[in-house]
Design brief:
Blueprint lengths: L9 H18 L32 H8 L4 H5 L14 H13 L5 H9 L5 H7 L9 H29 L34 E3 L2 H14 L9 E7 L19 E11 L6 H9 L3 H6 L2 E8 L1 E5 L4 E4 L12 E5 L7 E5 L1
Antiparallel strand pairs: 1-6, 2-3, 3-4, 5-6, 7-8
Helix pairs in contact: 4-6
């Protein structure tokens, strides 16, 4: 009798992947524009041995790179690179190094790069990813890579990998089961309950002019105002999900979002670059110099500034970090007549 798990042996999986890799390469043919590469990933089949206890000789990084051809990544991200750009790292190399870090559970990128730079401990990683000792990437290289290709393309790469495992029948998507039992966790839903898509990018008009007027008013009335009191700028919440009334029928007033908070202070010695730029931004550098004052930024939620029309763009500070989380309600186990909030 043939074991149902025989199709998952390395031999059978390797045979299937030969065909799968070929199909993927045919469906992703777009040439990579930049020919000046600091690294060069090449798919190479290596012998993979699995011990009786399930461990893989050489580790899972070796097994994955010996079975799956990651060259398709270049074609997927080709549009993100320029023909005349400076030398860059092979996108397949960077993706694999990022993947290796998660597979082998390195605590952070800094620790992983220390291992990668080590002549002996990092040799396998460098070999599988096509990286040389002379061109070890930095943490900023990986950050720039993620920003360059964006979340959508990063997800598309993973979708190709998920498709591979689906064709190998390691995942089928046919059965989905869940247990409704609630367990205490360390998860926390922090932030506004009524956030919307607008909250991540809120554009506010004529903020620079309003803050400038507030600063000039205080400069002209220093004798009547506390020098250390804050100058604040607010905007209305843009979310359309706020309920109009609470359970008691009282009207709910939308909260204000703080854009910027600063205060005037005596200039003590040389001003910092931030203080100089802030004064230039609001056009009050001459008035501040005349009175030997400076602007100290207390809080700021500003992400971008449009100098042409004086508008700014912010991300609401109350926007939850995990926007997929939600607040739910269930019956209180101790009192079925009462409801209890829970975090999903």
């Amino acid at each position: 009798m043939v074991s149902p798990f025989k199709k998952f042996t390395i031999t059978n999986v390797s045979k299937k992947l030969n065909e799968i890799n070929f199909k993927i390469s045919l469906s992703h043919k777009k040439p990579f524009p930049n020919l000046s590469l600091l690294s060069q990933y090449q798919f190479k089949k290596r012998f993979v041995k699995i011990f009786p206890n399930g461990a893989v000789q050489g580790g899972y990084c070796k097994m994955i790179t010996s079975l799956i051809d990651f060259s398709f990544i270049r074609a997927l991200v080709a549009d993100c690179y320029s023909l005349y750009g400076p030398p860059c790292y092979d996108p397949s190399s960077l993706f694999l190094l990022d993947l290796f870090r998660y597979i082998d559970s390195h605590q952070d990128m800094s620790h992983f790069l220390d291992v990668l730079r080590d002549k002996d401990r990092g040799r396998a990683y460098r070999t599988y990813a096509g990286i040389s000792m002379e061109h070890i990437p930095s943490e900023g290289t990986f950050s720039n890579f993620r920003i360059r290709i964006g979340e959508a393309l990063y997800s598309e790469i993973f979708h190709v990998l998920v498709g591979i495992f689906q064709q190998l029948e390691m995942i089928t998507f046919k059965i989905l089961a869940h247990d409704g039992t609630l367990y205490p966790t360390w998860a926390r839903y922090k932030g506004c309950t009524y956030f919307s898509n607008q909250c991540a990018c809120i554009k506010v008009q004529d903020v620079i002019g309003k803050v400038k007027n507030s600063i000039l008013y205080r400069l002209n009335n220093l004798s009547n105002n506390n020098l250390g009191s804050e100058v604040r700028a607010y905007t209305d919440c843009p979310s359309d999900r706020f309920p109009e009334k609470d359970k008691k029928g009282n009207e709910i007033k939308k909260p204000k979002i703080e854009l910027f908070a600063c205060k005037l202070a005596f200039a003590d010695g040389e001003l910092t670059e931030e203080q100089k730029n802030t004064a230039i931004l609001f056009g009050v550098e001459e008035e501040l110099d005349r009175q030997h004052l400076c602007i100290q930024t207390v809080r700021s939620n500003i992400s971008t500034i449009n100098f042409e029309d004086g508008s700014i763009t912010i991300c609401c500070p109350k926007l939850p970090k995990d926007t997929d989380a939600r607040i739910g309600v269930r019956r209180n186990p101790q009192n079925p007549n009462k409801k209890k909030n829970l975090w999903l």
